[in-house]
Amino acid sequence: MVQNVAPVMAELEPEDFYLLSGLEQGMRFSRWVAQGKIAEFSRLDGEEMTYRLDRCEKRELIERKTIQYTGFRLTFEGYDALALRTFSERETIEGVGAPLGVGKESDVYEARSYKPLALKFHREGYTNFREVNRERKYTADNDHISWFYTARKAAEREHEALRAVYPEVSVPQPVGQSRHAVVMEKLDGVELSKAKLDPEQAVSVLDLILDEMAEAYRQGYVHADMSEYNVFVATDGVTVFDWPQAVPTDHENAEAFLDRDCANIVSYFQRKYPNEMPEIDTERVAETLRDGSFDGIRLLA
Q1: Catalytic residue positions?
Q2: Percentage above 90 pLDDT, the chain
Q3: What is the mean pLDDT of residues 263-278?
């Protein structure tokens, strides 16, 4: 993915990006862009277009198919290159560093910039397109959905949610978004699933997380995917990250998502710290988050 793209960015010329952008436009209408249509989208034709197709295919930024007709499409590396180009032109980042986390639906890298940043590339739809297309509502009204559209919508949703709740909620500060990529503040701390909390810390950390969820609700959003895998714990508090599935509080399923978020995070603490956690009615917890009366988990036991 990005590890393969960053080294070739310096080799790419403006005309290469015309080609990549043209394929991006063409893929709005078809998963494969017929070679005869590429000139229309890229403003390249003749030998120039053939030369650019060969250059980009050699660098694995595009791929070709020859069954029925000759067509081309972006690879995720090609889409990465377009996003990196935009961030470079905006002077958002200067380069890409080491990976911070590589998962099924996103890859996160260090970003070299004026301060420590993280560069997150959404991958939704690339390997499990049918499942994502069925489950993610933001793709439901489109007859033709490409994987890069699905990933871009996830990035847009995450960036929008971060901008809406920051800084009142402890989330990574959003810096910029292009296509399927989001630049944000680099987090310090340890993922909750890997954190080793002292028994007396467990209730306090759970309270901090629920406080952030309550504030997010006041700011108009429900995370909708809360778990021990998207909370960082540090000496100065907690940070909630990974917001692509967030929904506004006026969403038809917002209350159900909040109930599920509360059940997920409370049940994690009850499983991992059974002796420290009181018996808790998670629906009551969610109710207090909604009405603003949450004041600690022990008071709800």
Answers
A1: 225
A2: 81
A3: 94
CATH assignment at residue 233: 1.10.510.10
Q: Does any domain span residue 247?
A: yes
Nearest to 186 by CA among 79, 98, 84, 105: 98
Cα separation, 259 vs 216, whole angstroms: 14
Pairing assessment for the beta strands 71-74 and 117-122 based on DSSP bridges: unpaired
Instruction: Indicate if 60 and 100 belong to the same structural domain.
Output: no
Assess contact for 283 and 290: CB atoms under 8 A.
Answer: no
40: Cβ contacts below 8 Å, ≥ 6 apart: 22, 26
Confidence band for 126, pLDDT divided at 50, 70 and 90: low
CA angle 20, 182, 119 (to 5 degrees): 95
Label residue 200 by pLDDT band (50, 70, 90): confident
Q: How many independent structural domains does the chain possess?
A: 3
145 falls within a domain: yes
User: What is the domain extent for residue 22?
Assistant: 2-77
CA distance 38 to 55: 15
- Looking at the fold, whether 220 and 294 belong to one and the same domain comes out as yes
Instruction: Look up residue 139 and give its two tokens.
Output: 């793709």
Q: Are residues 194 and 296 in the same domain?
A: yes
Backbone angles phi, psi at 263, to 5 degrees: -60, -40
Domain for residue 284, yes or no?
yes
- 145 falls in which pLDDT band (50, 70, 90)? low
Binned at pLDDT 50, 70 and 90, residue 295 comes out as very high
Full-model pTM: 0.90
DSSP 41-102: HHS--HHHHHHHHHHHHHTTSEEEE-SSS-EEEE-HHHHHHHHHHHHHHTTS-SEEEEEEEE
Check whether residue 247 and residue 295 sit in a common domain.
yes
